[in-house]
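We now fix the convention by which a protein and its fold are recorded. These numbers are not coordinates but entries in a learned vocabulary of local backbone shapes. A record is reproduced here so that you can trace the correspondence yourselves:
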Amino acid sequence: MTAPRIVIVGTGPAGVRAAQAVVAAGLRPIVIDEGRRDGGQIYRRQPEGFQRPYAKLYGSEAAKAQALHQDFDALRTQVDYRSETLAWNLTAVAEQPALHVVHRGEPQLLPYDALLVCSGATDRLMPVDGWHRAGCYSLGAAQIALKAQACAIGGRVVFLGSGPLLYLVASQYEQAGAHVEAVLDTAPAMKPLAALRGLLARPALAWRGLGLIRGLRRAGVTVLQGVQPLRIEGSDAMGAEAVVVRDAKGSVRRFECDAVGLGWHLRAETQLADLARCDFHFEPVSRQWLPRIDEDGRSSTRGVYLAGDGVRILGADGAEAAGRLAALAALSDLGHARGQALHAAEAPALRRTLAQMDRFRDGLARAFPWPHEQAAQLPDDAVVCRCEAVTAGELRRCVTEMGSQEVNRAKAFSRVGMGRCQGRFCGHASAEIVAQASGVPVQLVGRLRSQAPVKPLMMNTAEVKA
């Protein structure tokens, strides 16, 4: 009997643990990743030849990063690992579902019996007036500069946003010897009771987050909570030069800098799930659309399994558990005897772990809320879509003058979300602006629909025929 064809997308925490489960069942999966090395974003490896110690590179997550890297190194001979491989489309070829990829410039077609999408997440960004200036980066980009290039994004850096990643990246910069001018958090210092209940699901992790804030303050970094971003000042010649906010007491504060790191928690990378025609649902606490899965990671599309931050933002620990569970569910569904035994033995405990982490996720979303009101306060000339230079005023005119009370219709009129990032950076904020201008809840304006290719390809990339 031919062994089932299992393809795993991503080598972050979810992808590595999924691959580990498939190998433990006696199969050899194809494992692809867009990056040059495994680890995903949170545990991104430094390039070969770099010698910075794990403690400096990953801070409090050093032991977990090292364990994941070592485990994947042990798997390398037991999987078909293809780095620098972009998964850009899914189609049915001769009634066989297949993943379209480009591996180091060469197009390939990967038929599969089970596809495990562990695509991770990217920064969730809310525009700030002036964020289009040179020197403005996402928190993830700031991390990549530090981990993969051993450099800071600037000489005097201000970090602005909300969520655990804000403090983690700032702490990593301070640990690396960079000058952090300020950490400015839009979330209030006093958390609602519902948030505290959720955070208590993982008290050690919550305590670790408080430790990051204390460490930054001990290092002399200004940390403000409950701020309202006003603008990023600067010029075309010099880029970002200062961040101006209103603090929790109502005073206007200005912080001079030459670089800004921005981010409001994370948004799931759902493009492949969208192309696979998976069902989505609106998650009201985080105010974003997410693929619908069952408790084991099965999507609504047969043969497609989703795990990690690409479907629910549960963090690295949650992604590891979700990746293993989704892989075992896939093996069980394929009728693989060893996989069925492992799924029956391990699924209950893994589900309990994920339920606990989901309570913590809910607490984080309430403690560090997405500042949707900020979209309503953007001036008309503020750039929302940096790729296509679409302003908040243009989006509002799409509603008031063209009747575009749905975000894809606004996209057609304004080109918002049509640039290189395909709406990853501007999509959520654009929906908030359209909803505010229309006077309707944000879920009613829909979400930007994904189209292939999910990321830009070279024009001479040839299509592989079946």
